[in-house]
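note to self: dont lose this again. the chain is below, predicted strucutre after it. 157 aa total, dont forget to put it in the shared folder this time
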Amino acid sequence: MKKLSLLPFVLAVCALTAQAQTNVLRTGDTLPALKLNDQHDKPAVIPADLRQVIFAADNGGAGLVTAWLDAQPKDWLAQSKRVYLADIHKMPGLITRMFALPKLREKPYPIVLGREEADLAMLPRKKDCVTLLPVNAGKIGEAAFVCDAPALQAALK
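---
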């Protein structure tokens, strides 16, 4: 009987440990140094004067961002001091190599890829939405979530 009474305690400790390992960035936190690669397997360049992080955690968000960026000049991200991060860690490796990466490599703009779960786990997210994180002098502002094309267009103008 005593073994069963320990189960809730063990589960609680495991949950707290997992939560502590993936602290989500909040307003006022410093943007961590990201040592990730882009879709061409080149080290990502995060400008020192970065103004905003555009983050897609899933296919829904990525579709919104891609549609927006495809309609912009190829240097729009650099000119507007933004960076686009995409979390692809859940994508099966075969799909990533055979389909996703070739398609992403056709894009004229840089896409910084999170290929491992921990790569972008610190970024706030909402299903099928794009996370917009303002950055001022390396500090994160309040996250905004945009979940449709008109809202994304308005937020990125």
